[in-house]
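User: Hey, quick favor. My workstation is busy. Could you predict this chain's structure for me?
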Amino acid sequence: MGLAPEHLPAEWAEGPLPALLTDGSAADRDRRLTYFEPRVGESLFGTPAHPSRWHLRRPADADEPAVEAMELLRVPAVAGLRERDAGLCVLHVHLGDDPPTELAALAALPTDHARLAKLLPRGVRVADEASRAWTLAHVTFPQGPPPAVMPAAYASWGTHDQWLWLLASRSPLDRFAPDPQDTGLFAGRVRFSADWQALVLRDGAAFVGLSPDPGGDRTFHATAAHHVHTLYLDVFLLGRLQHLGANSLANTVSALTARESDAQRLLQLEGRLIELRRALWSSHITSRGKANELLERFQEQHRLDQLLAHTGTGLAETARYVEAARSRRISVALGLLSAVGLPFGMAYAAGALWGTPGPWTLLVTTIVALLLTVAAFVLLPPLRGLVSDTVWDRAED
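Assistant: No problem, here it is.
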């Protein structure tokens, strides 16, 4: 989406949405920075001098499901998006009695421009290519283990797996029925403890409580909810930034043909790759908790490591091609210079040694030099090859 933060209304506060913890403190920007390594903090929160994240509690025009808060994160320039003020919008939503169905509807929210126009501040618009939202869900149950929610064909799945799949995939069974025997569907599982688990898929992630949630603000599940709304949300936002940056660079590199490649352009793209790795790319973002594992599952679902490695390989191969073509042109130019310069040098030297200085001697020696040059190119195949190489290079250009 297009984001012009200098035009945000005054009710939008700077920084990420702070969640109140059980000890009464708030998980604000400063506290969350202590959780992450410094190399990713600026991408997630900006700096005091150049903020990149804002939040708003209780949007006035929120509708059902209840939107409790919103956040805006400006995509850093290192991601290389065409839209200068591109950003990500986060809606903190309270789900109702049918979370799987509501998530499926929320996934299509970017196409509902009328509804979004009521929520987004003036000057912020949805990007034209936006079609599906990435969702993050956290669900607990007062009775303990979640109830069965899928047909008998999925009885071999635990009830918590049924909920994990439906919430993370946002796909109703009538739209996509997964194979009950496909164990690879849960490759993105992250086991936190006996109390809760998570599943990360391509289009969403889900956290499901396994033990009873009695409610209240000072229970284990209340603390888990704070983590989902703050720290783990930040993890997936970083993953989204990595996804945007890696795909933007890959698309740029793939659109660069061999004929269009030049050393300066390749240097710019290689510098962009280095900056992308520096500012965004990391699997190890904290020394505590499960955040690293969540980010790794996200990267695996989108094959981001392979994408970035393929992009780097493509850049390296193009650079080798450009360098080889440059070296060949230099060799051809030097060969032609030598092949032409030698007959002329010999003819002029002979004329200076045995001839009488004057226009006639210059004309004769020039004609002799031309004849020797033509004879050399006719009789010597390597010299004809130099001419062929020159014509081929021009045809490629």
